[in-house]
Every structure is written in structure tokens, then in C-alpha cells.
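S.,

Sequence below, as promised.
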Amino acid sequence: MPMTCLGYFFNYASCVEEGRYCQSPHTTLRELHAHADLLQPLNRWYKETFGRSVFEEVAKPRLLDPLDLPSVRTARVTQLVLFLCAAMVLRQRSAPTHTAGYSLGYGAAFALSGVLPFPAFVHDVFSANYPYANDNHTALQEDRLRSCILYDPTEPAFGVTVANAIRRHFPEVVVKDDRPPYCMQVVAAETVLDALRAWVFRSFPASASHSTRMIRSDAAHLYPDRYQAVKAAFRQAAYGVPGLDIVTHQHGVLGQGRFLEDGGGVLFDAIQAPLSMRRVVDVLVAYRGPLIMFGSARTADFVFFGLGNKALNRPVIDWEQALLLRDAPIVTASQADRR
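The prediction came back faster than expected:
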């Protein structure tokens, strides 16, 4: 099969927020069941670990209780296993060259690339991440933080100007995801974020209609320095050599075939450090091939909000749609260049 510049982007595992693991469980599971031999090792591990088939959990969810942290964490694992099952099937049909992630999605990116087998990720990394997960869950349940995306697509100086204002006048605000020049995601207490939004909307009137509403926020990506013990635990896992390029927002491209000197530190930064989807998009553009997006439609829009799929300048294909397109070939790099 000819090599393509096909990429996979693994989004944050949003199953608890969405109340489901995928848009079309029946048709998605039917397609995955057709490849049972390929998926058997991962599914067998899941059933031995959690006492239930991953396909059973996807079809009839039991673990989507946002108030119960153990259930939330197991649901996150289920979501990533589902993503990996689909990615493995799709990988049989084409030759992906690169993968990327958003937050916890990097766990699937590392597993697919062969850097860290998924069972090892769960046992050595996901379990070590409990203090961080607990703090995030507590912050969300206590309703202490607010988050929103500030966005003005009409003003190239928007990002720089707002960032300077935050440093000078709103030091309690944390930029969770920087997407210059038009956009950023910010987190703070409600009164502080109210004041920042009022200033931004006065200074950039167009941003009032383009920015998102405020929502409750966890503490993810805000204070990674608090979790040095977690980072040390990440480093205890045995990391291999990537079989695909892995695009990260903190460490650039982890090139296929090159040993990672500090795989645990890189993965910690990828999952927990403040995000910058701008950096990821700028690198993805260079590959010029189609991108398969793993995640929900809502979270797909959220990741590239302020940059848009046009910034990638290539087809962006939903993973469920790609999985079901048995007879439709993925666009090759040369075909994409002719469009």
C-alpha cells in the first residue's frame, strides 16, 4: 500500500462530559467486531483488568458517573481503548506517518506509536497520575474555577494584547491553551474571569460574539510544578522507540526511529503542561496529508477553535466516519497537493 501523509489526532477523552463513548455505538462496534482477531490482545487485557468487555461498556455504559472519580478514570481508559481499537483497524488500511494529541489523548498517541504499550500506560502512568486527577476532579466538583475561550478572528494583535493585559492587570488568570494570534483559553475564579472578559469585550468588540461562554473548569494544565512526584513516577515506565512521528506542543516532533531520552518527562509535559494548539497546528501543516480526528464533534471544534480546520489546509476526517468508509480510500499526499 502506498505511503501517505496520514495523521491521527487523539483528542482529550471526553466521554464523561459527553455521556457516551462515541456518536454511533452500533455501527462503530459492528465494524470493530469484524476485526476481532486484530483487537483481541487489547480487549482481553481490558476484560481481565475491568471485568467486562470494552465493547459491552461502549454499548451499555456503566461508568459515566461524573461524581465518582474511580468510575470517571475507568471511563477515560475505556474511551482511549476504543480510540486505539479504531486506530489499529484504520492502520491496517493505510500507512500513517504521524500522530498528535490533546491532554490525555497523548496516551493513545504514545501507545499507537509503540513508545509505551497501553497496558503499561495504564499501570505505570495513568495510575501514577491519581493525585493530579483527584485535584482536577475536586476542583470541578467544588465549582471553584471558570474557563472560556477568548477569540477575535478580526484582530491579529488580539493574542499579544490580551496576554500582556493578563500579566499586568489579571495575574490570577492562567492561560491554559495559547493559540495565537486570535485565540486563547483562560482559567480563573469567576469574579476574576468576569473582569477580564469585560475588559476584552470593551477593547475588542468583535470578541464578544466570537468568544465562548464561561463554563466550570477543572485544574488541568494549570499548575504542573505541583506534581513533581507524579513526573518522577512517569519516568519509571519503560519507553520504546516511536514507530510514528509524535507531534507534541512542548517538545516538538518526537521522530520515528529515535530513542526518547526522557519519555516520562515528555509524556508528563504533553498531558499536564499548559497547552498550545498553535504549535501543534504549525507542525501538522508541514505533513500536508489528511488528519483523522479521534474525539467527539464538540471537542474537535474545541481543539482547533480560533484556528479552524482551514489552518491545517487538508481534509480533517472524523474517526467514526473514517472507520465506516471501507471502500473510500484515504486521500494520499499527492492527491491532497493537487486539490
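The longest strand covers residues 145-151.

Coffee later?
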